[in-house]
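Re: [ENG-882] Designed sequences occasionally contain unexpected residues at chain ends

Forwarding the minimal case from QA. Structure tokens:
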């Protein structure tokens, strides 16, 4: 009877230890399994096992992502500076005694100073072929041309964001199709069509599509945001050009 009690106690002890350590063992096994999956079918595995076409495709996507982020950040900084300059126009320029004096208060890179320079040149007496042109008409044309040049500079780089947003998913899809093609070729040559032989290469190829989408989405969002901000910038430039035209035309 004592022997039976001892064995029963041992069984209870083993059962309690199993219940206590089972979650720990399960979590450890799950972590090891995830690490093995990541090592076998992750991005590093894709880089190691892919051919030169897939590597070039990945490099193209990386370059598109870096360049699009550069455009987004640089254009955002430029727009912020223009907004700050527009505030300086409202605070200081119109309080000056003359347009020439107000021009000296502006930064050399200010689009408003460029527009003032264009307007002052147009308001000066014209010679040669332009002499018969009415001064107010020539002033209006010159300010419109200056505004168009500023608009072109502000929109520079946005077309690249639109290009990245529209083409990056297809570049990633090309990498996926190429990877699946190579995977099927290897399966056909080896004659092994089990699920582990098919799922791994196909899953690695689908990473290219995910990377393409990850490149395209920020480019599209950045393009729409910058275009909206550009409209506000150009509205302030156009308003300043109209006010400048009114001041110079009244002289």
């Amino acid at each position: 009877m004592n022997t039976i009690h001892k064995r029963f106690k041992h069984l209870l002890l083993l059962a309690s230890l199993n219940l206590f350590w089972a979650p720990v063992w399960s979590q450890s096994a799950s972590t090891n399994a995830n690490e093995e999956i990541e090592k076998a079918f992750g991005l590093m595995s894709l880089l190691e096992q892919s051919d030169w076409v897939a590597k070039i495709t990945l490099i193209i996507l990386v370059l598109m992502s870096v360049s699009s982020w550069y455009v987004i950040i640089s254009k955002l900084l430029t727009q912020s500076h223009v907004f700050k300059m527009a505030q300086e126009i409202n605070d200081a320029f119109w309080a000056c005694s003359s347009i020439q004096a107000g021009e000296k208060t502006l930064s050399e890179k200010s689009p408003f100073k460029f527009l003032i320079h264009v307007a002052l040149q147009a308001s000066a007496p014209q010679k040669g072929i332009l002499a018969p042109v009415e001064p107010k008409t020539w002033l209006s044309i010159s300010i419109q041309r200056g505004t168009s040049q500023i608009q072109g500079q502000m929109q520079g780089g946005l077309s690249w964001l639109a290009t990245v947003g529209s083409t990056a998913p297809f570049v990633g899809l090309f990498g996926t199709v190429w990877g699946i093609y190579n995977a099927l070729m290897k399966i056909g040559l080896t004659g092994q069509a089990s699920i582990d032989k098919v799922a791994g290469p196909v899953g690695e190829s689908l990473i290219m599509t995910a990377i393409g989408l990850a490149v395209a989405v920020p480019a599209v969002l950045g393009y729409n945001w910058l275009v909206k901000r550009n409209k506000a910038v150009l509205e302030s430039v156009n308003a300043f050009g109209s006010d400048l035209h009114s001041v110079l035309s009244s002289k």
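QA comment: On inspection the terminal residues look reasonable. Residues 42-249 form one domain. Proposing we downgrade this to a documentation issue.
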